[in-house]
Amino acid sequence: MAGRRESKKRETRQRISDVATELFLARGFEAVTLDEIAAAAKVSKMTIFNYFSRKEDLILDRQDDLRLVPFREAIRARPEGEAPVAALRRLLERLRAERHPLARIDRHTAEWWRFVAASPSLEARMRELADEATEGLALELGGPKPDGLARLAAGLIVLTVRTARQEALRVFERGGPAKRANEAFWALIDRGFAAVEDLSR
Amino acid sequence: MAGRRESKKRETRQRISDVATELFLARGFEAVTLDEIAAAAKVSKMTIFNYFSRKEDLILDRQDDLRLVPFREAIRARPEGEAPVAALRRLLERLRAERHPLARIDRHTAEWWRFVAASPSLEARMRELADEATEGLALELGGPKPDGLARLAAGLIVLTVRTARQEALRVFERGGPAKRANEAFWALIDRGFAAVEDLSR
DNA sequence: TCAAAATATTGGACTCGATATAATTTTCTG
DNA sequence: CAGAAAATTATATCGAGTCCAATATTTTGA
């Protein structure tokens, strides 16, 4: 049976991630060092890098979501004849119904984003992920060699999601009820996606 | 005469910047250490940080341009009744006529951008500057408390410039003549700005 | 079952950017 | 020139990330 090693690896990785998350949330991202995490997780620092290539990745889990991979899949899997943006709108509706963090502002997600915003290096990593998301969407919209217009559209989609989220968070942090925050979110999504549709005309 | 100190400071800063630039261009951004720069410029490492808060800033000079400060000024100084985007179009025309690096692709600027693209940390800094540009433009478009729409418009302006430049560079690197590269640049600027105009309607 | 191959993990030294502090030098002012 | 102010320095420290050689663990296959 060749599964022992695999399961141990999964355990180790999970333990590191859990320990790191706990420490980060308790004391802030920058305040916790990798040495501390290593000690708390009872592994060597090298082992951490074995599983996570940067400190940021210890907390920025669900990188697929942050890279908007579901968006790409929704475009690729759309029914024949449907416009890419329409497929994205459908996807977002579904995410909303499922209360997916990508399409929802509540106390919990707001706290998460506040945590990210409090750290310059996490913000930097988020920007990087946004660029990766743009690149991925451009491939979906424009094929293997996307032209400038496809890239602009992809960038606008990512920008829209990001801006809508930031605005919703701003409303929420200002003390607005979650309902108003989510309204702000969807209003901007609507505007942005309309602009994407206009782009290609 | 209280100018000796000032001029010495200017000299020191310039010497550091010159020495750093030379080393960077010769051997690549990541390959040159701050210790080397300090030694070559005959200052202590601390003095470098006295003038430049990060290594990236040693080469990313003209931060005002990279932050699109001229864009903000063009909007603020526009004649009464003119739309912000129209003012930006005028500005860009002027920059083109002046062969300003922000609105031009040629061997020289292409080499510069290639250099930046070759360094992950310079790219990261560029993303950060883009965000600062967005924030600044949003203030110009939406007043001291810009709403989501103003932020989206600001983001789209920055995105457009960035995407247009990247696309033009791609054309240029692919061997296209500078003329074609610049055409690609302006075509995307046009599309993007049209989208900005549509946004607010 | 056992030895060898494959793979994970470790410790420790090292690089480099960045920060903090205190000492020292240079410039300015009266 | 004396003393204040500002610039520069040396030095120590931190923390992320890399490298390497040694060690431990798991797998494989004879």
Q: What do you see in this structure?
A:
The structure is a homodimer of 201-residue chains. Chain A is mainly α and 201 residues long. Chain A is 73% helix and 0% strand. The mean pLDDT of chain A is 96. Chain A binds chain B through residues 124, 127-128, 131, 147-149, 151-152, 155-156, 159-160, 162-164, 166-167, 184, 187-188, 191-192, 194-195, 198-199, and chain B through 124, 127-128, 131, 147-149, 151-152, 155-156, 159-160, 162-164, 166-167, 184, 187-188, 191-192, 194-195, 198-199. The structure holds a DNA duplex (30 and 30 nucleotides).
Which radius of gyration of chain A do the C-alpha atoms yield?
19 Å
- Order of helical and strand elements of chain A: HHHHHHHHHH
**Uncertain stretches of 5 or more adjacent residues of chain A:** none
Global geometry of chain A:
globular
Number of strands of chain A: 0
Helix content of chain A: over 70%
Q: Quaternary arrangement of the chains shown?
A: homodimer
- β-strand percent of chain A reads under 5%
